[in-house]
Specification:
Helices cover 41% and strands 16% of the residues. It contains 14 helices and 11 strands. α8 (173-180) crosses α12 (251-271). α7 links the parallel β4 (131-138) and β5 (165-170). Bound molecules: pyridoxal-5'-phosphate. Pyridoxal-5'-phosphate binds at residues 59-61, 85, 138, 142, 169, 171, 201.
């Protein structure tokens, strides 16, 4: 099957699978103190600073939930966009597991801004209200759009001026770096981001995400939160091996660049088909489009993808490190045929 449903439909990149196989020898200490995981953590620190605290985690939902749990107290809230993964697609995990109230700022393109957040922080914040402690942004956003470096800097400066932290959901941070042609450091550390959910799974790994505390003080005692959160993986070496491969030889960047290129090609080719409307700026590896419902149903039989908005018929097509030119040609050929 070839699919445009999610970058999670793609398999594991061969270099990463090789790394898993190579790690599969001998006995090694468990729970993350093995030499492979230690080396992988060092590779993270090369990007995020020598004091950054890195914790491997199996899912993005867990990374987001546990980081936010760690950064808040029971009376705090987290500000996010109304389409943030943490509020739409994590089954209320922040509420149920972390006990956090999520406050939505309205956005038109999935991107928070100081203008959108300020009314929330300027409102009544007395003892009767939950107290915002963190602003959570997703880069790139759930709508495939990107914050510019300046926009992230502005949000971080504003958050810090109000005594809040900034969390970045970086499930697709590699795609964002590739699209903006900046380093991981420029996207996060240099902007003032405090903590990051770093995504490996969508970029060629499996069950490999990381909680990164760029501000090391914020990471103190997170190991206990991870354990209580049931995310302390015993045979961690296999996650460490994946990150070691991903962060070596710029594989993280090459995979993301490829995936972004495929999305651009898909948008360009599909966008030329009569009746297809591309609805969002294609900045990374997601393409959003409106096509007739009957075409969606037929096309999905051959190539799985999701309907994003039932009310408008907007669909989402995701590309990945393993999407090929042929996939795009075949998909667009079928789409064109159905649009006749
Ligand atoms: C923006 C975003 N954040 C986080 C995640 C992580 O989710 P999961 O728990 O499925 O790994 C996803 C996955 O779809 C996502 O799109």
């Amino acid at each position: 099957m070839r699919s445009f449903a999610s970058d999670n439909y793609a398999g594991v990149h061969p270099d990463i699978m090789d790394a898993i196989v190579k790690a599969n020898h001998d006995h090694m200490p468990s729970y993350g103190v093995d030499p492979i995981s230690t080396e992988a953590q060092q590779l993270f620190r090369d990007h995020f600073g020598k004091d950054a605290k890195i914790f491997f985690i199996a899912t993005g939902t867990a990374a987001n939930t546990l980081i936010l749990k760690h950064l808040t107290r029971s009376w705090n809230s987290v500000i996010c966009s109304e389409c943030a993964h943490i509020t739409v697609d994590e089954c209320g995990s922040c509420e149920a597991i972390a006990g956090i109230k999520l406050i939505h700022a309205q956005t038109i393109n999935g991107k928070l801004s100081v203008e959108a957040i300020d009314p929330i922080l300027s409102g009544r914040l007395d003892v009767h209200q939950s107290q915002p402690a963190v602003i959570s942004i997703t880069q790139n956003t759930e709508l495939g759009t990107l914050y510019s470096i300046n926009e992230i800097k502005e949000i971080c400066a504003y958050a810090h001026s109000k005594g809040l932290y900034v969390h970045m959901d970086g499930a697709r941070i590699a795609n964002a770096c590739a699209a903006l042609n900046v380093s991981l450091k420029e996207m996060t550390v240099d902007c003032g981001v405090d903590a990051l959910s770093f995504g490996g799974t969508k970029n060629g790994c499996m069950c490999a995400e990381a909680a990164v505390f760029i501000n090391p003080e914020l990471g103190v005692n997170f190991e206990f939160v991870r354990k209580q959160g049931m995310q302390l993986i015993s045979k961690m070496r296999y996650v460490g091996a994946q990150f070691k491969a991903l962060l070596s030889n710029d594989l993280w960047l090459r995979n993301a660049q490829h995936s972004n290129r495929m999305a651009a090609l898909l948008a360009e080719t599909a966008g030329k088909i009569n009746g297809v409307t591309i609805t969002q700026k294609v900045e990374a590896n997601g393409v959003f489009a409106i096509i007739p419902e009957e075409v969606t149903i037929k096309l999905q039989e051959k190539f799985p993808f999701y309907v994003w908005d039932e009310s408008t018929g907007e669909v989402r097509w995701m590309t990945s490190w393993s999407t090929t030119n042929e996939d795009i040609n075949e998909f667009c050929f079928s789409l064109q045929d159905l649009m006749k």
